[in-house]
Amino acid sequence: MAAPGENLRINADRLWDSLMEMAKIGPGVAGGNNRQTLTDADAEGRALFQKWCEDAGMSMGVDTMGNMFATREGTDPDALPVYMGSHLDTQPTGGKYDGVLGVLGALEAVRSMNDLGIKTKHPIVIANWTNEEGTRFAPAMLSSGVFAGIHTQDWAYDRVDAEGKKFGDELKRIGWVGDEEVGARKMHAMFELHIEQGPILEAEEKDIGVVTHGQGLSWTQVTVTGKESHTGSTPMPMRKNAGLGMGRILELVDEIAWSHKPDAVGAAGHIDIYPNSRNVIPGKAVFTVDFRSPNLATIQDMEKRLAEGAKKICDEMGLEVELEKVGGFDPVEFDKDCVSAVRDAADRLGYSHRDIISGAGHDACWINQVAPTAMIMCPCVDGLSHNEAEEISKDWAMAGADVLFHAALETAEIVS
Ligand code: HGY
Ligand code: MN
Ligand code: MN
User: Do 195 and 51 fall into the same domain?
Assistant: First the structure.
């Protein structure tokens, strides 16, 4: 396939303006975003994205999980489309670029195709995957997971948030239940542009991460049950302190992850303590242990040691403990041809690059199970993400979107 000319570039100012415009929707309290999935802010962001796509001459399709697909026709209607996509939903203390750069970088690629009058054989489709973050409705990458046949739609619709609201009801409430059967679409390939969310590219002064693999993820929800009692009058030997049990288990989680250094991580980001009253010994603690590693055997060892260790700790303390696997996926190897298209694009465009393993999970990790898929990463300041202070430079956004543009063009085959 003819490679695009190295002079074909996106319009970085227009991309940056769109990123800043989208960032006004669902603002956080510290300069980032709180545009959680299926909230009114999510609905507002979806509507703006749809408007921009239609302004760029694209037609919008939506499936029954609310996944959005904007299509730019190709010259061969029978050719499977080349997809580019990511997610517009954010963490509660999210940044302006996590997910959004991948969706709006794809839109910028299409806008640039329009400016340059480029026609491709394969149609081009931009995807916005519903609920990538999994923060309001666990697990992460929920809707790309249903699309890839990992989860059933019924199971996904029944996922509840902290207020007991169901995913399916909230999707209906914001008016984004589409009419397309989820997973019916077939893809020629998919590319996802994403910020690294880690420190490597910035530290090594590389413009581009060529993502060859994604590390695996394991989410285990742990419920420790003790007994509420008075923090003042209950003698120490009589206490059944679920909070203390949680603390000892979290210490164990850290120890397990460190024991597999440098290729493993572990922590709990979600923690609920009950009744969370200053003068009541906690009777219950519910928290989600997040283990990750590029190595499946390591993940399995960490899960096993958590289960054994948590039971031992709770037995010794007279506490009950339950563990439930609430999310996860095995380590991912992306499609070699798509990865080469990314690497060749970076070379052609003169961007410095290095192969990298994704530390975070992405929709691409599930879509890789149903279509040839690869990811492109750009640096982020101090490797910080899932924090409102998340920041990138316009040059990094430009490099990532340029590489996405070229990888998609080469794979979709330029006709004129
Ligand atoms: O959890 C993840 O890795 C992704 O940010 N949802
Ligand atoms: Mn993301
Ligand atoms: Mn994220």
Answer: yes
